[in-house]
Write a structure and sequence with these properties.
Length: about 150
């Protein structure tokens, strides 16, 4: 159940009339994608001080039958972005998702650029606890928190 006051409407966003968002023109760089990420991307990254932001430009291929971005795509971005936060914070140590909790707060629409940011909450010897959000502009779309298992060197 979404938190009180969450906007879970599926109404279309107001049209900006400015055309499609250009991630590269806004300082985003294509992120080296894995096989899976290639299917759902392209994914983008941008350095912000000591941390990174991640995102994707929602297209018709990301939408569900209601014409909004599929929740599975939003969870995919959250898992990818928070996993990268863990990767950076652990000194690029391999890690896997153990648990990911998500809360859908509002709809994202094709044509919108969805951004993800996260932070480490606590680190143990073999696990890391993180949280983050997905936004479109000032609108929060999803909140997530999770636990990642830090793996030994390959």
């Amino acid at each position: 159940m979404p938190p009180p006051g969450a906007d879970i409407s599926t109404a279309s966003p107001p049209s900006s009339g400015t055309g499609a968002f250009d991630p590269a023109g806004a300082g985003w760089q294509p992120r080296g994608n894995s096989n899976f990420s290639t299917l759902v991307g392209p994914l983008w990254a941008r350095r912000e001080g000591e941390s990174w932001a991640y995102g994707f430009l929602a297209g018709p291929q990301h939408s569900n039958a209601r014409g909004i971005v599929h929740g599975g795509m939003l969870v995919t971005l959250a898992d990818n972005a928070l996993g990268l936060v863990v990767h950076e914070a652990s000194g690029r140590q391999p890690a896997v998702t153990m648990q990911l909790n998500t809360h859908f707060l509002s709809a994202a629409h094709p044509g919108e650029f969805v951004e993800a940011r996260g932070e480490v909450m606590r680190r143990g010897r073999s696990v890391m606890f993180v949280r983050g959000t997905l936004t479109v502009g000032d609108r929060m779309v999803l909140a997530a928190d999770g636990i990642w298992k830090l793996l030994g060197a390959r």
